[in-house]
Write a structure and sequence with these properties.
Structural class of chain A: alpha/beta
Number of strands of chain A: 7
Distance between the termini of chain B: 88 Å
Oligomer: heterodimer
Structural class of chain B: mainly alpha
Shape of chain A: globular
Helix content of chain B: 40-55%
Low-confidence stretches of chain A: none
Number of helices of chain A: 17
Largest sheet of chain B: none
Strand content of chain A: 5-15%
Order of helices and strands of chain B: H
Mean pLDDT of chain B: 80
Number of helices of chain B: 1
Strand content of chain B: under 5%
Largest interface: A-B, 43 and 30 residues
Largest sheet of chain A: 5 strands, parallel
Strand order of the largest sheet of chain A: 2-1-3-6-7
Distance between the termini of chain A: 71 Å
Radius of gyration of chain A: 24 Å
Order of helices and strands of chain A: HHHEHHEHEHHHHHHEEHHEHHEH
Shape of chain B: rod-shaped
């Protein structure tokens, strides 16, 4: 006969019931997961312009794939042509306030038949952010074009770059990516090289748990709409620390409010010139005839990764734009360095095209005032970029058959 | 049938029993919320990402 005194205190008191407790636990997890699925799928970024700093990893806010897809669903009807913009801070529009953002101008130029969504992030590769969303939405929005920027021969690692790599793991763990053997091989190799056994177990376990429970979707929604709980360098103290992120507008400063002498400070000139020279200098060497040519090993690495970066059907609807630096710095290159620079952009565009993508460059005819610093564009430069990209997007839409009624599927 | 007035056993009070079961279920739901949040937090990087444009 059991001794009632031996029962745990809570249960003995008659106020704790294990079965209802466990049912409540299970129901609570199911409710959180279901809520996350519904709100993220539907979308909750009512005033989206881009993932500005407060709602980006810089602000300890990590947008989820489903959240980003929700942003698209709120804006794009199935019949419209979806233009997803990815890439780095240049395409994100650093130095361009929301009203002067280059993607807003691109939207204006393309008109109502197109919907432009800016998913570029500071420091991201062309394979991060928007690239994942474009692939995940390939069936839901078959009329889509992905546009991203990079530098000549900058290697497009299929596994992206931190801190945005979580989007790749999220897409993989949910089976949202197309099976594409060249990419799978590169990513699998990366996992083996970069994660020990425990790390691989953790990666898989976290992916599985989040797939089932959607805790990242749920708490991002809570943080965006109701209460933010993560300490971060952008809103370090109360009360702003806990304000829902939706309360923070996209208040990007305007390069155009700064005079040119502040945009291109002589104090930074030497460091900036090193970067400008490395754009082509890192990838080029002189052949026996004294002409510049890409270093074979680096070119080969680029070609391998470019081939693996996107599935073949996505390559055809991807436009890669090579970003040029400000003429303030390019003018200081020697004639020989200019030849190398020109070769890098010409060969860089060609290499992307050979790998199956659409590609071009921009900035050759831009003026000093079109830049806010060495690489980021002021609003005037953004307008020129938008005009260049709009022409290419229209041409791609026509060649991909997006302008025909009812096509393509 | 036993007359409740003559039954020596104390009468079971259904109301309080249901209430305590509901409290247990609510506790379970609260723990679910906490667990859900902990899973979210441990997945975040401990150091913030500082982006320097270059």
């Amino acid at each position: 006969m059991s001794d009632p005194a031996a029962k745990p205190t809570l249960e003995r008191s008659g106020s704790f019931h294990p079965l209802p407790f466990l049912l409540g636990l299970g129901l609570g997890l199911i409710l959180c997961s279901a809520t996350a699925r519904v709100v993220s799928h539907r979308g909750y970024h009512n005033t989206f312009t881009r993932f500005h700093t407060v709602i980006s990893p810089a602000g300890q806010y990590f947008p989820t794939l489903e959240e980003m897809c929700g942003v698209v669903r709120m804006r794009c009807r199935p019949g419209q042509i979806l233009v997803i913009v990815g890439g780095n801070s240049v395409f994100e529009g650093v130095g361009q306030p929301a009203a002067k953002l280059w993607t807003a101008e691109l939207q204006r130029l393309l008109g109502a038949r197109y919907v432009v969504v800016n998913f570029a992030f500071g420091g991201a590769l062309c394979t991060d952010g928007g690239a994942r969303v474009a692939e995940v939405l390939r069936r839901e929005y078959p009329r889509q074009i992905y546009v991203a920027n990079t530098a000549p021969f900058n290697v497009p690692f299929p596994y992206g770059i931190e801190p945005y790599r979580y989007l790749l793991w999220e897409a993989r763990s949910r089976g949202l990516l197309e099976a594409y053997r060249p990419r799978d091989a590169v990513v699998d190799r990366f996992i083996i090289d970069d994660f020990n056994l425990g790390g691989r177990f953790e990666l898989r376990g976290k992916g599985w748990l989040d797939r089932a429970l959607r805790f990242r979707d749920f708490w991002n929604w809570v943080g965006y709409d109701y209460l933010f709980t993560i300490k971060n360098p952008l809103t370090p103290s109360l009360p702003k620390l806990i304000w829902p992120r939706s309360r923070f507008p996209d208040d990007e400063p305007d390069f155009e409010s700064r005079p040119l002498r502040e945009r291109f400070s002589p104090a930074n000139r030497e460091a900036e010139m090193k970067i400008v020279r490395a754009f082509s200098g890192h990838f080029y060497e002189k052949d026996s005839g004294g002409d510049w040519r890409p270093i074979p090993k680096l070119r080969e690495e680029f070609e391998t990764m470019a081939k693996a970066a996107f599935p073949d059907d996505q390559k055809a609807r991807t436009l890669i734009m090579l970003s040029r630096n400000s003429p303030v710095y390019l003018r200081q290159l020697t004639a020989d360095e200019v030849r190398r620079e020109d070769a890098a952009y010409r060969d860089g565009v060609e290499a992307w095209r050979e790998a199956g993508y659409q590609s071009g460059d921009y900035g050759r005819d831009f003026e000093d005032i079109d830049f806010g610093d060495r690489t980021h564009l002021a609003a005037s430069g953004g307008r020129k970029l938008a005009a260049t990209v709009a022409d290419r997007v229209r041409a791609m839409a026509a060649s991909l058959g997006y302008l025909n009624e009812g096509a393509p599927q | 049938m036993t007359d409740p007035a003559l039954d020596p056993r104390p009468a079971k009070r259904k109301g309080p029993a249901l209430a305590s079961q509901a409290v247990s279920a609510l506790l379970g739901m609260l723990l679910a919320l906490v667990l859900h949040y902990v899973l979210y937090r441990i997945g975040l990087p401990s150091e913030p990402f500082i982006y320097v444009a270059f």
